[in-house]
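Thread: Modeling a multi-component assembly for a lab meeting

Hi all, long-time lurker, first post. My supervisor asked me to bring a structural picture of a complex we are working on to next week's group meeting, and I have zero experience with this. I have the sequence lines for every component (271 residues in total). Could someone generate the structure of the whole assembly? Inputs are pasted exactly as I received them:
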Amino acid sequence: MMHAGYIYAGPIETWATILTVAATAVAGDVLTAGAMRRIGDLDLVRAKAGLGGAVRAVTSSPMFLLGVLCMAVSFFSLLFTLSNVEVSLAAPASASLTFLGNAFAAKIFLKENVNRRRWLAALFVCAGVFFLLAK
Amino acid sequence: MLTASVGDTLLSHGMTQVGPVTMAHLGMLLAALRNPWVATGILCLLGFFASYLTALSWADLTFVLPSTAFGYVVVALLSRFWLHETITIYRWVGILLIVCGVGFVANGPSLTEHKPQLASGEAAPEDEGVVTGGAR
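Re: Modeling a multi-component assembly
Sure thing. I ran the full set together rather than chain by chain. Output:
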């Protein structure tokens, strides 16, 4: 079915682009979080080295820069997806998948203890974002 | 969370004043930066990113992300009561679910403490990490 203003994308292309958006967003979040974990409490860094020192500590981290790059790729992937897929599917699906993917990735890569409370939080927020964005 | 919500709403309000931007008139994006609502919205979003990074430096990603999702609720309420947009029953259900999710995570600890590494650099075999530390 052709929708006004949208180039039709088949189911495989639709979900491939949505998964790309979610996967790059998860990579960006996990890399950024990993970088911040390595740098340590920014409040303490700022107390020691001032605001400039805190900014330098963050922006000189290759892991942080890679994370920002992934976030940028995710953003442009979302733009590409939105040009091919209806926003009412692309936005909630990618946002919800990002929340679930982050819970898995944080457990695997950041070794966070994702307990039952956090899984429930991720699932509720995931469902809530889907309802909120799907209209 | 508040800076992101207010920033998004300010951007939305500013862009309605700027008007639709087409591929043929991308220069309008630069002109939009001169709109005070848009400029203030961008400053708010910069404040959000700085706060987000600071939170990640002392709390787990699985604590910070669901907590910041509460911003979706704030945006919905701002758009309803400030921009006078309509919120459907599905959106109210979404808001309720997000509030529940944030409640689950907010009542728990914020950080996973890992046991110290062994001298060889290997993590202790039973190192699963425990969550600790209250929300700041």
